[in-house]
Amino acid sequence: MPESADAAVVASGSRARPGVWRRLSQGAVDAVLWVLGILGVLSLIAAVLAHIWGLSIILFSTGSMSPTIPAGSAALVQQIPAADAHVGDIVTIERKDALPVTHRITSITPDPAGGRLYTITMRGDANNADDADPYHVAQVRKVIASVPGVAVAISRSRDPRILAALTVIAGALVTWAFWPRKGGASDAAGDEPSAAVDLSESDGDQAAAQTMP
């Protein structure tokens, strides 16, 4: 009788260990999925707010705005009417057949053509003279804040290969989390006979004890 009870305890312990590891791994996957879900929601909110408020991120590949904004920085910019810009603001202006330029405004005047157009001259903080030609624009993107040294990381995160890999990993985690477990029902069913055996043995010992003289 004691040997049978010990065997039952050992068997139940051997079954419990995989269950613990399964619960721990499931908890880790759930945590990762929660993090991915929260990041997804935040990204969606950021996209909506960016669309409403005209926010976007620009990357600096040159040092023309050093030391204020060194090369390799990223900046958060907001699109505003040119009429709301002022001398001293750092703004990004779109150019035809060229990359946008982000420099500091040195002068701004209403364009003679009228309307919403303004004539703006700019200069990079690291430059000794204003840009060669003034800009005639109706709107600009004003720099709100900048962070140095993150341009490379942001640029790489936009790589389609990295986005594809993250999508595959997220899909694999979701599949693993919801995949049916083979041992779940069998373990539960297997525990019942053991409990019945233990109970019958206990009843048998009790009956034997009652019949002893």
**What is the overall pLDDT average?**
76
In what range is the share of β-strand residues?
Answer: 15-25%
Biggest sheet, open or closed, and with what strands and sense? Answer: 7 strands, antiparallel
The CATH first-level class of the largest domain comes to Mainly Beta
What is the helix tally? Answer: 4
Q: Kindly provide the radius of gyration, computed on alpha-carbon positions and rounded to a whole number of angstroms.
A: 34 Å
Query: How many domain units?
Result: 2
Q: What is the helical fraction, as a range of percent?
A: 40-55%
Q: What's the CATH topology label of the largest domain?
A: Umud Fragment, subunit A
The CATH homologous superfamily of the largest domain corresponds to: Umud Fragment, subunit A
Q: How many beta-strand segments?
A: 7
Physical arrangement of strands within the biggest beta sheet:
1-2-7-3-4-5-6
The chain-level structural class is alpha+beta
CATH architecture of the largest domain: Ribbon
What ranges have pLDDT less than 50 throughout 5 or more consecutive residues? 5-11, 184-213
Distance between the termini: 20 Å
Helix/strand order, N-terminal first: HEEEEEEEHHH
Shape designation: elongated
